[in-house]
Write a structure and sequence with these properties.
With 539 residues, the protein is α/β, with parallel strands linked by helices. It is built from 18 helices and 18 strands. Bound molecules: 3-acetylpyridine adenine dinucleotide.
């Protein structure tokens, strides 16, 4: 090996700086992490692949993108001035407004000076003698840090589908999770959308308004509830702000999903048919994620779940004029909620438009992409532009892209080959001083992400302070603690209906990915009581 090659392959070469902490990613997790570390007087460097802050809201700029948690709750709680002063304009903020908020936070807390944009972290290698990490970035530099925090996001590794001929397509191809910064105008175009998860369901109604013709290629029909989005009035904002301390506390400590809402005290089968239908109608009219909160056993009992699923299937049949299209749009292969429920604005009604066609690619699979068409088993559908709403390598995809080497040179990818193994979704044995924010094994994607992000950032900050106070060099969970936690996450998941769906929660959307239920389903309130055990597991 030449000297040059050996230098290039040696992550310890040419160390350019030393920090207390390297943070990977400048989304909501990375930004708040940086803010807290600075508050402790620690030096930190954040590396961000994009050219700006905002993470998921930086990348997902597709038409119709908006939050599915109400904006007054999908926002930071760590600064009372911030939450009292920021004005959300709508019940569910659109993507540009959430990105504006992220930029406002970066400016308000003067974060940018410690964030290096347009820079990927390629490798992180643990030095067992020094108890430090060597972190190599895409600009060819290597820095050293005592701690590394992965704030890489759960849904940030957009997945290009493996469809024959895609590279031969002559028109523009857009992935919803990697949307261009400049506006995309579909006016007068024949557009094809592949994928009908949240991203497809949000973008289809908006694209349909512009396109001359829109063909939606659906492999799995999804349950979706109307958002009933609307402008927020000043009175609504004020009412929320006046109760913020109480609302935030309840969301953190008492709710399963970190969203303040009524807690159901009955199961679906405890009510008679008329009463149940009236309750579903009320939630359908109110709109949003709280539809699933009407009863306390929808995620647990298939018969109870069927009542909600039947109600939504009935609504689809009422909305969609063509009975055959309605039937195709009615989900029939998974319990409602076992795939992430979608929140839409006029999705089902869009199929009544004369310029929209639904193609069922479950019974009639896509065979090939031609230069100007999508070929299925039953025929070719002409399209000039393709939108891929095909999702993400969720929860582990962005971590797996980094070559992370812990004790004895073991890589995290080797350790996670059969599925992610963590203690509390925060750390993985063999990788000391490496923290994951909202990692697999924590409530993360099953919760209001900002609630879970703030909890993990606060915990990591306290943990680092604890270690520094006591002069500890390194920490990691004990093997038996991790084993017990992995078993517990799995056991709790299997008491619910969630594993019955081929969802990205299970890794089922990525060919070859181990099928393990990744997030912790016990709820954020219960989970919050667990972390002190990690401290006992210090060594
Ligand atoms: O991705 P998805 P997403 N050929 O994986 C289909 C969050 N989010 O970007 O189900 C044909 O859900 C796939 O079909 P199937 C939210 O947590 C939040 O929509 O695998 N089709 C599916 O229909 C969400 O759950 C918000 O059979 C293919 C679709 O593509 C998560 O992100 C907004 C295919 C992928 O759906 C992911 O949502 C948006 C192929 N080769 C996203 N490969 C809000 O806050 C995949 N599909 C509102």
């Amino acid at each position: 090996m030449s000297a040059l090659q050996s230098l290039a392959g040696n992550s310890h070469a040419a160390t350019t700086a030393t920090y207390d902490v390297v943070v990977v990613g400048a989304g909501f997790a990375g930004m708040y992490m940086l803010h807290r570390l600075r508050g402790q007087g620690l030096s930190a460097r954040v590396y961000e692949q994009g050219s700006g802050v905002g993470g998921t809201w930086y990348w997902n700029r597709y038409p119709g993108a908006r939050c599915d948690v109400e904006s007054m709750q999908y926002s930071y709680s760590f600064s009372d001035e911030l939450q009292q002063q920021w004005d959300w304009s709508e019940r569910y903020a659109p993507q540009p407004e959430i990105l504006k908020y992220a930029n406002h936070v970066a400016d308000r807390f003067n974060l940018r000076s410690d964030i290096q944009f347009n820079t990927r972290v390629d490798q992180a290698v643990f030095d067992e003698r020094e108890n430090t990490w060597s972190v190599t970035t895409s600009d060819g530099k290597t820095v050293t840090a005592k701690y590394v925090v992965l704030a890489t996001g759960c849904l940030s590794n957009a997945r290009m589908p493996d469809i024959k001929g895609l590279e031969n397509f002559k028109g523009n191809v857009y992935h919803t999770g990697h949307w261009p910064h400049e506006a995309v105008d579909f006016t007068g175009q024949r557009v094809g959308v592949i994928g009908t998860g949240s991203s497809g369901i949000q973008s289809v109604p908006v694209i349909a308004e512009q396109a001359s013709h829109l063909t939606v290629f659906q492999r799995t029909a999804n349950f979706s509830i109307p958002a009933r989005n609307a402008p927020l009035t000043e009175q609504e904002r004020q009412a929320f702000r006046a109760r913020y301390p109480e609302i935030r506390r309840i969301a953190r400590e008492e709710m399963k999903n970190g969203i303040f809402q009524e807690v159901p005290d009955r199961g679906a089968l405890d009510d008679g048919g008329n009463e149940r239908r009236a309750k579903y109608e009320a939630r359908w009219s109110r709109g949003g994620l709280t539809f699933m909160g009407v009863y306390n056993n929808l995620a647990l009992d298939k018969a109870a779940n069927d009542t909600a699923a039947d109600f939504v299937r009935g609504k689809i049949a009422e909305i969609v004029s063509d009975p055959q299209t309605a039937k195709l749009l009615q989900p029939n292969n998974h319990p409602i909620g076992s795939k992430r429920i979608c929140i839409d604005s006029d999705y089902f009604a869009t199929f009544n438009r004369p310029n929209v066609t639904l193609i069922d690619i479950k019974s009639n699979p896509i065979e090939e992409i031609l230069p100007n068409a999508v070929r299925t088993a039953s025929g070719d559908y002409e399209v000039g532009t393709l939108v891929l709403a095909t999702g993400f390598d969720a929860m582990t995809g962005s971590v797996a892209k980094i070559d992370i080497r812990g004790r004895n040179g073991q890589t995290l990818n080797e350790k996670w080959a059969e599925g992610p193994k963590t203690y509390l979704g925060l750390m993985s044995v063999g990788f000391p001083n490496l923290f994951i924010i909202t990692g697999p094994g924590s409530p993360s994607v099953l919760s209001n992400m900002i609630v879970s992000i703030e909890q993990h950032v606060d915990w990591i900050t306290d943990c680092i302070a604890y270690m520094r106070d006591r002069g500890f060099g390194a920490m990691e969970a004990k093997q038996d603690a991790e084993d017990r936690w992995v078993a517990h996450v799995n056991e709790v998941a299997h008491t619910t209906l969630y594993p019955q769906a081929n969802s990205w929660y299970m890794g089922a959307n990525i060919p070859g990915k181990p099928q393990i239920f990744m997030p912790y389903i016990g709820g954020v309130g219960v989970y919050r009581t667990s972390p002190p055990r990690a401290m006992r597991d210090l060594r």
